[in-house]
Amino acid sequence: MTAAHRTIAIIGGSGVPDPGLFTPTATHKLSTPWGAPSAPIQEGRVGTLRVFFLSRHGPGHIYPAHRVNYRANIDALVQLGVDTILSISSVGSLQEELHPGDFVLPTQFVDFTKQRPTTFYDGGKTYHISMADPFCPQLLRTTASVGNEAGAPFHEKKTYVCIEGPRFSTRAESTFFRGFSDIIGMTLVPEITLARERAMCYGLLAMVTDYDVWAERPVEANEIVRVMQENVARMQGVLERLLPRLDAPRTCDCSRVLEHAGL
Fold it and tell me: Which domains are assigned to the chain?
C-alpha cells in the first residue's frame, strides 16, 4: 500500500488575509466542540495538491493573537482531513542580522504566553506530548530548500519567542528575550502544540517586519504594515514554488507522536 499524499492547510496571519495562490472551489463553515474557527475555511487546488486556507485573525483582523480560538482552528482543519500546516506569520527581529523584509524558518520556540488554552486534553485521557523538536523536519527541509532557491533573504535554525500580546515588549523584556531567541511574535503558541497533539506536521515561515524595541526604536504599527505589504509578493513567490514540492507522502514521524505520549 502506498502512503497517502499530504493535505495542506495554510494559516495566514497578519499581512496574509487571503490565499492569493488559488481560486477557491469551496468554502467550509464548520463548528467544533470549542466553537467556530476564526473564519470560513477556503479550499482549492495547486496542481494536484488539495490546499485549504484559514485566516488566523478572521476577516478584517477582528481577533487579536490572545483571542484567536486556536483549538477550534486546528480541530476544524482536522475535520477537513488536513495533516500538514504551513503557518505564515509576521515577527519582530531580536538580532541585528535578521533584517525587516527577511524570511525566517525557526526550529525551536520559547513560550511566554500567559492565559491561553494550550491543550485538547483537559480531562479524561492524558497525553504528555514531546516538543523537543516541535517543527516537522521533513517540512523544514523542503521549505528551506525552496526558500534558498527563491533567492529571498532566508534564515534557518532560529528560535521564536511567543509572547501574550496584544501589547509589544518593554525595552527590558526585549533585551531579555534576545539573550535566547532570534524572533518574537504572538501566535505560534498554542497553535503548534495543538497541531502536534493531533499528530499533524507543522512548519512556520516567518516574515520579519521590524526590529523589536531592543534596537532603541519603539515598534510602530504603521511600519509593520508597510513591510508586510512589501513582503506579500515575495511570500507568494516562495509558496508557489513550495506547495508543488509538498505533493508527496509524509516520511516523518509526526503522525506517530501520540504512540508513547499517553498515560
Answer: 8-256 (3.40.50.1580)
**Known catalytic residue: 210?**
yes
Residue matched to cell numbers 506536521: 201
Q: How far is CA 155 from CA 59, 70, 147, 169, 182, in A?
A: 30, 27, 9, 23, 10
Mean per-residue pLDDT over the chain, rounded? 90
The yes-or-no answer on residue 212 being catalytic is yes
At residue 240, the pLDDT reads 87
pLDDT at site 83 = 96
The pTM for the full model equals: 0.93
> Which residue of the set 122, 210, 247, 253 is catalytic?
210
- Residue among 182, 212, 247, 253 flagged as catalytic: 212
44-100 pLDDT per residue, tens:
988 888 999 999 999 888 999 999 999 999 999 999 999 999 999 999 999 999 998
In DSSP notation, the chain reads -PPPBP-EEEEE-TT--S--SS--SEEE---BTTB--SSPEEEEEETTEEEEEEETTTTTT-S-GGG--HHHHHHHHHHTT--EEEEEEEEEE-STTS-TT-EEEEEEEEEE--S----S-SSSS-B----SS-S-HHHHHHHHHHHHHHTS-EEEEEEEEEE--SSPPPHHHHHHHTTT-SEEESSHHHHHHHHHHTT-EEEEEEEEEEE-GGGSS---HHHHHHHHHHHHHHHHHHHHHHHHHT-SB--SSGGGTTTTTB-
pLDDT digits (tens, 9 = 90+) for 208-254: 988 999 987 766 667 777 777 777 778 888 888 899 999 888 999 99
